[in-house]
Design a protein that fits this description.
This protein is α+β, with helices and mostly antiparallel strands. The chain is built from 5 helices and 18 strands. The protein folds into 2 domains: 118 residues, Diaminopimelate Epimerase, Chain A, domain 1, CATH 3.10.310.10; 133 residues, Diaminopimelate Epimerase, Chain A, domain 1. It is 17% helix and 41% strand.
């Protein structure tokens, strides 16, 4: 029996398991993620998050997608992780360091219970994003062919995991359910890529829809919102500080001069249970 907590960050929902208390076999975690994430036969989620401790006893977050693949990072998930850890007394300071597959991040649970995350530096070179053979080149507003034969300007950004941001006039007009799985396997991204369609409302306001690799259409993507904020400012579409509306809610993104990105948004509880 495994005790778990279900949480969500603006509709991006997760099953969180405390690996400090539960006996988990690492070999079975991909299968466990597939089973628990199933929305008909399981708990239902966009991923399984396991909390434990890494080097120097720093809290560590690992996450598996609904298809069983492990993700380097998840912006909405790490906010849920931080609130879960603080509420259970696992963090003894206001600013919480967390080890992730994308490196160590620092999080802070604010007075209004939103969580602010220092996401680190946005990575822009092809080598950092995982686009082989491209070296130090950058993909900024380059044409990307859509499944219907049209072309859209695309920018690639890594927030520890790879993102492709495509700017459109109307995000609601995009057939995400059919375009998403094709673009996830875009040739320039051999490890697959998270795909985001973004619409500029104003210099400080964007709308976004997301197809996440390994998960499909999700109500929100925190790292994707960071990538979208970065891409929009790099291409002079917005100011460095923006609010981004996703189907599940709103995130605040700030892109600093030194390349660092701050993300602020909610982290909410849904329920607790036991998995047999």
């Amino acid at each position: 029996m495994i005790r778990f907590t279900k949480m969500h960050g603006i509709g991006n929902d997760f099953v969180i398991v405390n690996g400090l208390e539960e006996r988990l076999d690492p070999e079975t975690l991909p299968a466990l993620a597939r089973e628990m994430s199933d929305r008909r036969f399981g708990v239902g989620s966009d991923g399984l998050i396991v909390l434990d401790r890494g080097p120097e006893s720093v809290l560590r977050m690992r996450m598996w997608n609904p298809d069983g693949s492990e993700s380097e990072m998840c912006g909405n998930g790490v906010r849920c992780f931080a609130r879960y850890a603080q509420d259970r007394g696992l963090a003894d300071q206001p600013r919480i360091p967390v080890e992730t597959g994308a490196g160590r991040l620092v999080l802070e649970v604010l007075a209004d219970l939103r969580v602010q995350v220092d996401m680190g530096i946005a990575r822009l070179t092809a080598a950092e994003i995982g686009m082989p053979g491209e070296g130090e080149s950058k993909m900024i507003d380059e044409p990307v062919k859509m499944p219907d034969g049209s072309w859209l300007p695309g920018t690639a950004v890594s927030m520890g995991n790879p993102h492709l941001v495509l700017f459109v006039d109307d995000v609601d007009a995009i057939p995400l359910e059919s375009w998403g799985p094709v673009l996830e396997h875009e040739d320039r991204f051999p490890k697959r890529v998270n795909v985001h369609f973004a619409q500029v409302i104003s210099k400080r306001h964007l709308r976004q829809r997301t197809w996440e690799r390994g998960a499909g259409i999700t109500l929100a993507c925190g790292t994707g919102a960071c990538a979208t904020g970065v891409a929009a400012h790099l291409t002079a579409r917005t100011e460095p500080e923006v609010e981004i509306d996703l189907p599940g809610g709103r995130l605040a993104i700030a892109y600093h001069d030194d390349g660092r990105v701050l993300m602020t948004g909610p982290a909410e509880y849904v329920f607790e249970g036991e998995w047999r």
